[in-house]
Amino acid sequence: MGLLSPKYPDWHPAPEELKQLAQKCVSLCADNDTDLPNIATKFALRCPSKYLTATVIGCSSPEQVKVAVKCLAQAEIDSNASLANKCQIILNSYRNYSWPSPPE
């Protein structure tokens, strides 16, 4: 839904605080010459749950498919694991959080 992108959609249902924290992570990733969606994708591919090993990635263009495949190839050798950990710390207060869908 775009929350991890540099410019999330105005209609995004996340609380304002979460949007601000996500943007903090976006900036942190940009300062390290990468982007948050790639960090998150590699994390999901590298750290599957012991109960669930499927990862669903939404792509809206052929370029996004290419990036997703590249993330898969790089997931196990990702040099950005410490950056992913920093983002997890920033977003920790929203771990396991979900918003109503559809909104109330």
From TrEMBL:
<dbReference type="InterPro" id="IPR020471">
    <property type="entry name" value="AKR"/>
</dbReference>
<protein>
    <recommendedName>
        <fullName>NADP-dependent oxidoreductase domain-containing protein</fullName>
    </recommendedName>
</protein>
<dbReference type="GO" id="GO:0005829">
    <property type="term" value="C:cytosol"/>
</dbReference>
<dbReference type="InterPro" id="IPR036812">
    <property type="entry name" value="NAD(P)_OxRdtase_dom_sf"/>
</dbReference>
<dbReference type="GO" id="GO:0070485">
    <property type="term" value="P:dehydro-D-arabinono-1,4-lactone biosynthetic process"/>
</dbReference>
<dbReference type="GO" id="GO:0045290">
    <property type="term" value="F:D-arabinose 1-dehydrogenase [NAD(P)+] activity"/>
</dbReference>
